[in-house]
Amino acid sequence: MTSAIATTELDGLELVRRGKVRDCYAVGEDLLLVATDRLSAYDVVLSPPIPDKGAILTSLSLFWFEQLEPLIPNHLITADVDEMPEAVRRHADVLRGRSMLCKRLDMVPVECVARGYLVGSGWKDYQRTGAVCGHELPADLPLSVKLDPPLFTPATKAEEGEHDENIDMARTIEILGEEKARLLEKLTLDVYARAREIAAERGVIIADTKFEFGYDAEGTLTLGDEVLTADSSRFWDATRYQEGQNQQSFDKQLVRDWLDAEGWDHNPPAPVIAAEIVEKTTATYREIHRRITGRDLEI
What we know:
The chain is of the alpha+beta class. The protein has helices at residues 53-68, 86-89, 92-95, 120-129, 169-176, 178-200, 253-261, 275-293; strands spanning 14-18, 22-27, 30-35, 40-41, 44-45, 76-78, 99-102, 106-107, 110-117, 131-132, 135-136, 146-152, 155-156, 165-166, 204-215, 221-224, 233-237. The strands form 4 sheets. Strands 8, 9, 12, 13, 14, 15, 16 and 17 form an 8-stranded antiparallel β-sheet that branches. A 5-stranded antiparallel β-sheet has the order 1-2-3-7-6.
């Protein structure tokens, strides 16, 4: 386990923005995405950071970008620091294993979520309204039931400290136009279906996940940000899945559950994460990396 990195300060590079997890720097016309070890839950950045998390997210994203490239292009140029410009290479000790040089994209202002199981905010919406993002569902469905077919359940992107908002297709069409909204729905579900097949071969259920898309300089719709990591997805052990109950998750659900047990109201400031939860979270992220990629993280 390495020392955790909560933030980066890279002399000679222009900081474009700090997200909940990533620090983004301009490198000519491209962007350097640096995955820190920050962890967010309920759209709030928590403390302390989770050791090794940024390297795990980066390695998982690289695996999935390669697997999904036949379906959709992605924004990755290189993750090899030695192939990046000199202004980046001089920070190699910090960046190695946790950074990606990427094409700059005009990002779609909607998070594209695929739900294969009724859980999380989808379950809460269903309990309250009988629907999830405008999808009317049969009555009396149990928690964690498999949704067949999976649902496209988009969300607006929240600023740090604000909460993402689930929206229906009608609202998505208002934001994007019908042609683009329908294309993103199909693409989201197609990519999710392929990823679910790959994960199933490894004994892992992808209960839900979110994708972010953008358009490159040539106008090509491109997969951006991170993809199918333990931050953006809900991973379950297929051998232990049981309908009607909460599942063992290989993601940050452990932290969410701890925060809820602490009685936090999901508004900042959040409680400081207990040391044993930090340690368990690193172990959980490492385990799902091993299951998905078939190898241990080497850092």
